[in-house]
Design brief:
The chain is an alpha/beta fold and about 250 residues long. The chain has helices at about 15-25, 40-50, 60-75, 100-125, 145-165, 185-200, 200-215, 220-230, and strands at about 5-10, 30-35, 50-55, 80-85, 130-135, 170-180, 245.
Length: about 250
């Protein structure tokens, strides 16, 4: 379905981003991976997906712009932009370090703005594009001690709606996917922190984390999120614009 399309997926060397990159590649898209990690692992992923890789730091606007420019230079276009890169920090508001607030907002929100701004003119010229912002259940509801993440993800949904309106009469769409708990390295760190803080086993920490928020009692998977991203790139999704699509085991239905 996506042969001759080029997909740039930020934060795609692991977790949700890698799941999306794999799903898009399976449909024939050429992939630009982005992210940090073990060089040998990244080389293996490049070979697996026949992909390119660029280690842009998404906290730096100039590097975000360069990532988009290099994707166009190497692969010819950016037809699909998936803004997935994200980080987390947990602390009460009055104890939240200023530098962690700035970093979380920069990577989870501002990077998406800079990437969209850089990629959109090319999409408009080509008359087709798909922008998919990976938000979160925390873009729709809040949790204590996650001020920066919740604020950034709420902002990302707002950005999604604005871009959708500004592209509404074009062949470009912009939507957000809002996962709940997905077992990624980011979430595993939260499980480990909970286990250490409460002196729990890893399995008990997972169960408690899911029970608190996700009624299904099961993690969503990167594969499921990748399948949703593929659907949003299809002709069937052409009139899905500015939507926030939950894949959260019932979290935000409560």
């Amino acid at each position: 379905m996506l042969t001759d399309k080029v997909a740039l997926v930020t934060g795609s060397t692991s977790g949700i981003g890698l799941g999306i990159a794999r799903a898009l590649a399976a449909e024939g898209a050429s992939i630009m991976l982005n992210g940090f990690g073990d060089a040998a692992l990244i080389d293996k992923l490049r070979e697996e997906l026949k992909a390119r890789h660029h280690a842009a730091d998404m906290a730096k606007p100039a590097e975000v712009r360069r990532l988009v420019e290099e994707t166009v230079a190497q692969l010819g276009s950016v037809d699909i932009l998936v803004n997935n890169a994200g980080i987390q920090h947990v602390a009460p508001v009055e104890e939240f370090p200023d530098e962690r607030w700035d970093a979380v907002v920069a990577i989870n929100l501002s990077a998406s703005f800079h990437a969209i701004k850089a990629a959109l003119p090319n999409m408009r010229r080509r008359g087709w594009g798909r922008i998919i912002n990976i938000a979160s259940a925390h873009g729709l509801v809040a949790s204590a001690q996650k001020a920066a993440y919740v604020a950034a993800k709420h902002g990302l949904i707002g950005l999604t709606k604005v871009v959708a309106l500004e592209t509404a009469a074009s062949g470009v769409t912009c939507n957000a996917i809002c996962p709940g708990w997905v077992l990624t390295p980011l979430v595993q760190k939260q499980i480990d922190d909970l286990a250490r803080r409460e002196k729990l086993s890893g399995d008990e920490a997972k169960r408690r984390l899911l029970a608190e928020k996700q009624p299904s009692g099961e993690f969503a998977t990167p594969t499921e999120i990748g399948a949703l991203a593929v659907f949003l790139c299809s002709d069937a999704a052409a009139q899905i614009r500015g939507a926030s699509l939950s894949i959260d085991g019932g979290w935000t239905a409560q």
